[in-house]
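Case study 2.
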Amino acid sequence: MLFFYRFKMSGSLRYPFSRILQRKETNRYIQRCLTQNVKPIEKLLIANRGEIACRVMKTAKKLGIKTVAVYSDSDRNSMHVAMADEAVRIGPAASQQSYLRGDTILKVAAETGSDAVHPGYGFLSENVEFANLCQEKGVIFVGPPSTAIRDMGIKSTSKMIMEAANVPVIHGYHGEDQSLDTLKAEADKIGFPVMIKAVRGGGGKGMRIAMTADEFEAQLESAKREAMKSFGDEVMLLEKFVVDPRHVEVQVFGDQHGNYVYLFERDCSVQRRHQKIIEEAPGPGLSWEVRRKLGEAAVRAAKAVDYVGAGTVEFVMDKELNFYFMEMNTRLQVEHPVTEMITGTDLVEWQLKAAAGEKLPVTQDDVQLNGWSFEARIYAEDPNNKFMPGAGPLDYFATPAPSEHVRIETGVRQNDEVSVHYDPMIAKLVVWGPDRNSALLKLRSCLAEFNVAGLSTNINFLMDLAAHPEFIKGNVDTEFIPRHYDSLFKDRTPSGLQVAEAVLALILTENKKNSLSSDPFFALTGARLNHSLLRTVNLVNDGKQIQATVINQGSGRYTVTVNGEEYNVEGKLVDKPDTNHEELVSSNISKGTIRKQRVLVTKQGVTLYTSSGSYEFSLPMPKFLSMNLSVAGLGDAVAPMPGVIEKVMVDDGATVNAGDPLVVMIAMKMEYVIKAPKTGVVKKVNHKVGDFVEKNKPLVTFVEDE
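Prediction:
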């Protein structure tokens, strides 16, 4: 396998330094393969999309391995397609018709001459049939043997294997009898609260908690529906629900020669909807003795199924630091970067080498823990609306500068679309520090520099979470968010000074564009007196009207009055083309203070990005538009987000009570039950099963009240 690099610069051939480093790494990779009598992977198909596809490609390119991307219709112009050496369309936007079509993907592998497939995470990464199909077609599956996926994918089987391997297991019911009567009886034996889990589940899908016997049947039905949709299997297991547990997992790695190591633990306790949003490595408050026991138990688990490659053994940990096997994820985890940061490894590189047959490059004694790392998942969602996932355009996307200690893992760019068809994660922010406190400080400062506009995100929530006193202390468990709800979802009303700064940014933009007469969107609403020396500015923040009066004092100075308080301000907008944003440099004249912060001004309003989070101020909607909206869909059941109708539970003419279930929607791979907003009679069910609906579209309309 030969690699030739030629670059024409100023009439002569030269090698850029980055290419020289890449060529050296490529040559080392080939030399190791030759030394170990192993055939190197030459072309890799990534059977995934988004962030993880881009992540795998970076390492593949570092090793000189050519990459092939696959894409659905909605991903034609995506970042992972642009990064790949080749890209092939595999179907429509729906994942069932594209990224979950293993036969189509392997056909592409054959047509492109790919000798290996990396499944990433999600989609086909833990699909036994796909792993078997790769083997049948003579394509390397970059992952564990299909037998390991099968044994660990069926939770009832995995529990028995773990018990035999002397791995602590929490008690429950893993039987074949799935009748309602049997499951109810077993739940009573275990004692409530009870966890209901799909045996083929993962990522919180097909998982429900029944706190009492009365709600068991409804939770069971909901878990079954979601499991069938996600995994094509509705078999359930039951287990005792540990109250306020920690979610601690261990990264393990094995090769084809029987060598295993653990790379310490990650704490993933802080979750919403049973899904992680912030992870750290190592786990806070764990002694080296507990850490060793966790790692050794994880290695026993991996050995029990002859595991190969990167895997994660997940444990539930109680308040006394006793831990119990929960499940094994037979793939690369979303949060693998925090492990890489504290161990100085590249797990994707290890995966590719192990898949080709190379031996592990280290023994357990070689693996050293260095420092602390956090990962925050940036999602398109609304934390103030039960973390409802969203979709839409990334009108503005600015991140902190990547460095040795700051990683931005993403598969999107500014102006890309977050699609309703896939997971709503926009990016991962990963930071490292020599200790937990320094890493946490870096996380908070970098979150303040992670600025997004165009859709709702969880960035402000993550900033509040990372600054919470109990999180700073490391007092985390899976009930952290509901326990600290009031302090995490605190009032974010902007200060008078922030309103004044927003008004100043609008005025400066208006002046710069000189559009008072030509662009009505920048004509600040309200009265104008004395040739614009006095004006009233109306803004909206979080649905609340804000009124400010502005007096132009001349020489670029303004007096802005908000709620009776005067702010004398002046400033300038500084373009920052390198970071794709403007910076507002403002002076609070009477206080003698100068502040610098990112600002985004559009025709719709202004957003301030501050060290305590972002504040959005929109210009009021024209009156004729708001009147039209106020009479549309009054009291109807509407779609809270874009999605697909999964089940319709009422008919035209039906009488329903407030809170009755009407429609089940699938959006962002999650199931949502839309309930009646009031008691009344259904006038019309507007959509049928399989229909795609946009946000705020009426799903069920009601007969008008007399």
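The first strand starts at residue 8 and ends at 9.
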